[in-house]
Structure formats: structure tokens, C-alpha cells
Amino acid sequence: MTHLEKFIRAIHTILLAFLTYGLVANLLGKSFPMATTQTILFLLLLVLLSPVRSRIAAFIDRHQPVFNKFPGILTWGILLFFYLPIILLVINSFNASRTSGSWDGFTFKWYVQLFKHREIWYALRSTLIVAVIATAASTILGTLAAIALHKYKGYIQNAHYCLVYTPLIVPEILLGIGLLLFFVALKVELGLTTVIIAHITFCLSYVTMAVLSRLQDFDNSIIEASEDLGASSWTTTWRVLIPVIFPGILSGALLAFTLSLDDFVISFFVAGPGSTTLPIQIYSMIKRGSMPLINALSTLLLAITFIAILIYQIVMNRKNKT
Amino acid sequence: MGVYELEDFLRFKGISKCFGATRAVNNVNLSIKRGEIFSLLGPSGCGKTTLLRMLAGFETPTQGSIILGGTDITDVPANKRKVNTVFQSYALFPHMTVRENIAYGLTIAHEPKELIREKVDQMLTMIQMQEHANKKPSQISGGQKQRTAIARALVLKPEVLLLDEPLAALDLKLRQKMLMELSLIHDEVGITFIYVTHDQGEAMSISDRIAVMNNGHIEQVGTPAEIYEAPRSSFVAAFIGDTNFFDGKISKVIDAEYCILDVPDLPPILCFNDKKLALGANVHLSIRPEKFQISLEKPQVSDKYNVLEGKVEDVVYQGDHTKYWVTIADDWKIALTRQHTRFMLDEKPITWNDHVFVYWFADDGFMLDRYSVEDEDLLQVPPQAVGETEIDDAAIAELPNATMLNIQQEDEQ
Question: For chain B, what is the domain count?
Fold first, then answer.
């Protein structure tokens, strides 16, 4: 082993030590200047190392097997970065301790408490009612809007397109305030109805866009073919147009359902007494400090989502095989 | 079905269609016979597809009326017409199987299930697609899609089948095969086919009659042979096949049949005067390349032949025939083809810069009614002679061979 290699190895060790130290220090809550100093030092080291980069390359060449694993390590690192918080959340939902820092043994008590917690179930019910109605309404209206936008061209449709597109780019908080002002001005009592109307407003845009993108690569001659074969425009719509764009409608509906389910900002503005949705309920529970209950609830939601995706995959696989 | 004149089965009366300021179809009058294969032929943008779409009911004529089997169908919506279309893109329903596609028209007409099954099976047999009946359009080939589209239109027993460039998306071999199949299907069902195409070869081989369209109007209607041999305008002459134009004045009327044509820079041309033109009339003569003969020696021919002398500008050998471009009197170029009916290697070949005699029988030329200079652009021009192109040294250096040469030289050093 040459001197140079020893030197490089030493520098690597130092770098690794610094990195580790920096990570640990930051995690333990070191101050901002400390973190900055570390970063600058780290960058300086990198700059100092640059003259020997070709040597490093040679070193990497010689130790291919180790470095070949790097992409794999990176992938796992990123996955860990994304899913570690969720894993921690799941583990903590079974933690007997109230605080997430210490492990006091395995327990189901938070789940038991959760099932007894009437407000959560009430909120869940409200959320589902809102989501189902908003999804149904926005899917129908959005599909019709998309068909109109696709079929007709002109000033009115251009304006229509802008109106549909706006909720996608306007900050949610503006939409929330706007809707609140609107309901107050019309003296509509805030409640489940206002939440549903608000959800339809923004879900509509997503559904329209999803269906419209499907319509864009739609071959219009099949509509003509259908009419040519004797179908009325009503029959054509039901037997040709809707089935062909159905994947777009379905993805729009799923998108609407998901968005409605976890919308917080807009719901927060337009919800009245007795129309608390799940995200708002969770928010207020965090404020009151009932973290373990939320952990349990989140774990349940996670499990439901996971199972749903699993079933979907199995069904799709089976469908593809036949 | 009522009784009507064969000629009057389908009629376009003064049909015009405007899209904004552009007139896609301009005052078209056309009569189509029952049971014939009628082609609408023309370059893209000539209005042939618009005419077809008006017949199918997808467009409403700005002016005029369409009469099918004695009834005016101008204002009848597409879904009520006994006319079915085969689309260029096939337009099969992607979510239905081949069987469901073919059955579509019958299903929505609420025909009894048994009858639908029977009719669809018949169609599947006709197009030889029985084993593909339960496949989706995405799982079958272009030719199979084409056949499905035809069957889907034919199962409804339309009075007219419209085919909008049905073979455009297929490759050459398959196109010829489908053309044969189409004409077999026509023999079997015996209904009127209206075939839109820009390919003169397709139109010539399949049609009973052809309408050549240009700029929204019809240039000429006739059988393929009539269109080819007796084109009325320079457009038809140049669009269908290849030809040579001679413009001149009649300088002498010999008898009831022949006249002498004076073309600038050329010797007097003997011309068959079928139009009975008088002295001094302007004449546009079209002579097809295969009507010429070419030889190295002065030909011994009757006085009803024209003989011109010239120099061979270009030769393109194509196996069964050779194409020659001969320059006459410095700036007249004649394109001609020579069919090799005899074993060719035994004779002295005619080649570049040869002094040749070009001759043709006076009756083989055809006088055009209308002529426009732009149509000459449609004619095939000879490829530029090799001697005339400047050789680009830089381009040669980039050739792989040249590079290899350089490497060899380096090796030698």
C-alpha cells in the first residue's frame, strides 16, 4: 500500500467521522452556527481533495466491488429516509409510553382507546360522507365539463377552461378564504353542506383535467364511425365515448376521492360545528397532545391503504394474465 | 327498393362546400351507377374526402343536394343513411372485440341476438377472421383491422360503401393483397363502392370508373382507360401516369382527319385532328411516354409517323422497360419508355449522348381541352446527369471508405 493510498484512506476516515459527527450533532439539536461550520469544513475538504481526484478514480477502479454497491446503498438510504418516520409512527402506536422517546413495552391500549373515541369516528363518518358525495358529483360534472371542452371550441370554452384550471394554481388558502367569504355573504350556515360544496369546487378541476388528458389522444373518427353505423349521439356517448375514456374518469374519481379525504386547508375554513372532518380532528388532537391515539389512527389508515393497493395489484395482475 | 335509372342511383347535384373563405368542393355534379366501384382520385386537398364526408353525412353541403336511390338525403343525419364508411384510420372501437365491433351496428338497431350472431359469423367467414373474433383491435395486424372495418360496415347491408383511403396505412405488399380482396368482396356483395384515394395505381386497378378531382372540382369522369388515354386537361394527363406536352398552332389542315401542328423550335408535327379544329387554333397535345419509339438508325416508317432527331440525355434501366430522356433541338425534352419485348443483351444498347431518332404514330397523340403551365410540375423530371453535379471533396472525405483509405496510408507510414 502506497503512502498516497494511506493518505486517501485517512482523509476518508476523517470525512466519514465529520459526516457522522455532523449528523449526530444535528439530530441531537446542535445550534445553527455549529451545523454551518461543519458544512463549510466539509466543503473545504472536498475542494482540497480535488487535485487528487484522478488518484481517487484509480482507487475506485481498484475497489470496484465495493463501489459498485453504491447505487444500491443510495437507494436503500433514500427509501429509509422516506419511510423511517412512518415506521417509527407504526412502532410508536404499539408503545405503552406516552412519549415517543422511550419504549415502555408493547400494548394495544391506544387502539382500544381509539375505538372508544367517539369524536374520531364521527369525524371519519363526516369525511367519508364528504368524500363520497364530492367524488360522485365532481366526477359527473368534471366528465361533462371535459367533454364540452373537448367537443366545442370558442371564446366561451376558453373562458370555461380558465375557470376550471384556476383552482389548480390558486393557493388553497385563497380558495378557502374565498369560499368562506362566499358562504358568509350568502348567509349559508357552515356545516357538512358547505364542506361538500367546497370539495366539489376543487375536485371538479382535477377530474376535468384527468378526463381531458384522456380525451386529447382520443380518435374522433370512432365517434363518426359509431354515428355512421346508425347510433344516435346518446348511444354513441354511452357505448363508445364513455367506455373509451373510462380509465380517465376512474383516475379522476380516485384523485378526487384522495384529495377530498385528506384536504385540510379548505375544510378548515368552511367547516362549521358538527362538520369536523378527520384531518381537522387529527389537527385538534395534536394540539391537545394525544399523540399515541393519532399514531394508532395513522397506522390503521396506513394498513387500509396498503391493503387496498395490494388488492388492486392482485386484481390487475390477474386481469393481465387472462 | 324503387325503380330508377341505373345512371341515377346516386347523384350529386351542384354540391359546394365552404370552410370559411375556402371552397373545398366547388359545384360538383356527379352520377354514380348502382353496383360500380367508383373512385374519387386527386391530390391531397382536392376536396375528395370532403365530398365523401358529405355523402356519409358528417358534413352538410353549403349548396346543392345529394340524391340516393331517388330520395334526397342532403339533410338526413349520418345515422339514418343507408351508407356506411370504412375510415382511413379504421376507427375500430378499442374497447370491443372484433366480433363486438362487427356486431355494433346490428346491436344498436336491437336486432335479435340469434340473427346478429348469424350475420356476424357470415362476415367473419367472408373476411377469414373466425379465429380472431375475440381479440381486441390492439391485438390484430393492420390488414386484419382493415378487414374488420370493412366487415363492420358491410354487415349493415348499406346501399353504398364509402372507403376513405382505406389502404393508406398499409405497406405496399399488403396494399396490393387488400386491393384484390376488396374487389373480391365487391364481387360477392355487389353493392356500390365509392373509393377515395390519391394513389392513381389503386384507382386504376380497382375502379369501374374514376372521377379525377382538383381544387374542389371534377376534372374528368371516365373509365380508367378513358382517363389514361384521353385526358381532357393537362392536369389529368400529368396526374395519371406521365406524359409529354406539345403546345402549338395549327398551320395546315390536311384533310378531315389530320392537321399540321407548328410547335416553336420543332419541325412541323403531324397530328390527328379528332377535335376538328380549324386553321390557326391553339393545340395542347399530350403524348404518353410509351407511345414513342426510339432507334439509333433512321426508321423506315409511313408518312403518318413523326420522326424527330435528338440526343439521349438520360437513361434509367428498369428491367422490363427503360426510361429515356431525349433532348430535341436544344431545349425540348421528351420522356419516353421502351418496353423490352426481345432479349436485350443481344442488341446494341442506346446510351448517354447517343444520337437517336424518336418517332410516333400521329394518331397516338391526344389533344387536350384545357392546359395550364403549373401542371407541368406534376411531370416526372429526369434525374440530374452525373457529369453536371459538382463533386464535393469534403463530402467524399466523410465517406467511410475514404476514412479506411486514410488509415491504411497511416499504417504504411
Answer: 2
